[in-house]
Amino acid sequence: MPPAAAAEPTHPAADRIELAAVLAALGHPARLEIVRRLAAGEESCCGDVVPDLPRSSVTHHIRTLRESGVILQHPRGRKHLLALRRTDLDARFPGLLDVVLRTG
């Protein structure tokens, strides 16, 4: 029997992103740093956004950000690319990302 394929990461639909989940995700310093780095550029690989953290911690933080609707994660070859869902977040909560990225 062939091995099961890895499931695609799940993301909430834009209209299902909840403010409480976004704020909780952004409330951790490591996750806020990930968002800042993604906001400063294009898509990044998981290991490139916070190379100084253990892989298990990065996995946890990425999953929290993805499941809250803050980022998109999609496989490209052997890597997983991350992108900030700025358009979705700005449409759902206008100005929130700008305030969060300016403070802290």
Summarize the structure.
With 104 residues, the chain is an alpha+beta fold. Helices cover 49% and strands 13% of the residues. The chain is globular and about 35 Å long.
Summarize the topology:
Blueprint: H1 19-26, H2 29-39, E1 44-45, H3 46-49, H4 55-68, E2 71-76, E3 79-84, H5 86-92, H6 96-102
Descriptive report:
Strands 1-3-2 form a three-stranded antiparallel sheet. α1 runs antiparallel to α4. The longest helix is centred in the middle third of the chain and has 14 residues. With 104 residues, it is of the alpha+beta class. It is built from six helices and three strands.
Q: What's the N-to-C terminus distance?
A: 51 Å
* Helix proportion: 40-55%
Which class best fits the helix and strand makeup?
A: alpha+beta
In what range is the share of β-strand residues? Answer: 5-15%
* Tally of individual helices: 6
- Integer average pLDDT: 87
Number of strands: 3
Key features of this structure:
single chain, 104 residues, alpha+beta, three-stranded antiparallel β-sheet, globular, disordered N terminus
